[in-house]
Specification:
The chain has 249 residues and is an all-alpha fold. It has helices at 2-39, 45-68, 74-98, 104-109, 117-147, 151-248.
Length: 249
């Protein structure tokens, strides 16, 4: 389920990006074509085309730098953006003014009949020409904002990394303290262990000596008892022999 959901989200994101790109390409290409006639008044055909394309991409790049650029000089970028956008608007207004026709119904709609013909065409060129580059730059701005990573997500990732590093440092300190405590306890218990082992060995030696002494005393008692038995036997034999002698006589 998660894979299907991620796949759907990816398709939606790619579709939105594709729509923004297509809309920007349409509006920017039309705006570039309009600007070609404006630049062609003072340049040859190929130079006019080159200037129109350069101004279009320059305005888009300036806007993108304003949105996501952190190391750029904002004042210079904003200045370039306004200059390039103003030239684009002027080129589109020129194209609309030169090619304006069948606009009397529009003049009547907004009740501009009291203005002169030049004023009417100027107002129509202003309305028709200034909107197109602004719309194109609006699409590129929306595209950049959509693609730009979320700052809150980045800050959350940074916070998580900092927390994990802090936890790692804290755990390392705790482990070091535990190791030091164990080393201290082992150093304090080693003499006690040695003393207890010494006492145990002395106790064992004393018990061994006592047992050996008891064994030797037992052996001596047995020997003494045996000698006493021999003496009693010999005395009994002597008595028997004395008793036998009178009966024999």
């Amino acid at each position: 389920m998660d894979q299907i959901k991620n796949k759907k989200d990816k398709i939606v994101q790619q579709s939105i990006v594709g729509i923004f790109i297509i809309l920007y390409l349409f509006t920017s290409i039309i705006s570039t074509i309009h600007c070609v006639d404006f630049f062609e008044m003072t340049n040859s055909r190929w130079l006019a085309v080159a200037l129109a394309v350069a101004f279009e991409f320059g305005a888009a790049a300036s806007l993108a730098a304003i949105v996501v650029g952190e190391k750029t000089n904002k004042t210079i970028v904003w200045g370039l953006f306004f200059i390039l956008t103003a030239f684009q608007m002027q080129g589109n207004m020129w194209y609309a003014y030169v090619n304006a026709r069948d606009y009397m119904s529009w003049i009547e709609l907004f009740q501009l009949t009291d203005f002169t013909l030049i004023e009417q065409k100027s107002i129509l060129a202003l309305v028709s020409g200034t909107v197109l580059p602004i719309v194109a730059l609006g699409f590129i701005k929306s595209l950049v904002d959509y693609i730009k990573p979320d700052e809150s997500a980045e800050s959350e990732v940074v916070d998580n990394k900092l927390k994990s590093s802090d936890n790692f440092t804290h755990n390392t300190h705790k482990l070091e303290e535990k190791i030091e405590t164990e080393n201290t306890e082992s150093e304090t218990t080693e003499p006690e262990t040695i003393e207890s082992e010494t006492i145990e060995s002395e106790t064992i030696e004393s018990e061994t000596e006592d047992s050996e002494t008891e064994d030797s005393e037992t052996i001596e008692d047995i020997k003494t008892f045996g000698e006493n038995l021999k003496r009693e036997d010999s005395s009994l034999d002597a008595e028997l022999q004395q008793k036998r002698r009178p009966t024999a006589q």
